[in-house]
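Typical record is below.
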Amino acid sequence: MPKYNISINALAIQGAQRLTSKTGKDCLVIDLDASRIQRHANGKLYLNLEMSENRDGEDQYGNTHRVAEPTTKDERGQGIKTPILGNAKTFYFPSESQGQPVRQTTTAPRKAAAAAVVEETETDDIPW
């Protein structure tokens, strides 16, 4: 089962600001449009994000996915794109009893044609 390590730039969220409190601590303040926030019956506020695979496959930093705010139907109709907030890397855990996770590397479809051809004589104990 894949797991994802997600890293986002919180300041890229629309309406986000970095402020310093009176005590000198950094604070993140987000002035969200009402359409961007979901109020739950329990009083919690949720910000929906979408994660999708990179079109070009894995980038130079090993990221396999991008994270962004979802666009509304009106925004899509107007061709408005929300900023990319961050990236994600895919990890697979062979089993819970084994130690370190294995990061799956993917090759983009157009990069695959340029990739070196692996000889069929090469054997490997890995089943995938």
